[in-house]
């Protein structure tokens, strides 16, 4: 079985390489505890895991968008009326 280094050799400093390898080790241990076997195909476990992580809604996912209650100009006018000071700096 090959060792798993990922892209850790792309990191330049000695501090970065071990830090990414620690992350790889933690994730590999999580996968092994979840039942993944490095010597077999784990398609079924992978599909179950992806279903749990991102459930697909079969319903219509479009949400009703509310119309703005006021235009941009009206909103800015109201903001400037409420705030007595207004400073613009032109360079």
Structure description:
This protein has a domain at 1-56. Helices cover 44% and strands 0% of the residues. The protein has helices at residues 16-33, 43-53, 72-82.
Write the layout of secondary structure elements.
Blueprint: H1 16-33, H2 43-53, H3 72-82
How would you sum up the major sheet? Answer: none
Task: Tell me the series of helices and strands, N- to C-terminal.
Answer: HHH
Structural class designation: mainly alpha
Low-confidence stretches: none
Average pLDDT taken over every residue: 77
Q: How large is the count of helical segments?
A: 3
Q: Provide the β-strand percentage band.
A: under 5%
Query: What is the β-strand count?
Result: 0
Shape descriptor reads: elongated
Q: Helix proportion of residues, in percent? A: 40-55%
Separation of termini? 64 Å
Rg calc: 27 Å
Q: What is the assembly state of the chains in this entry?
A: single chain
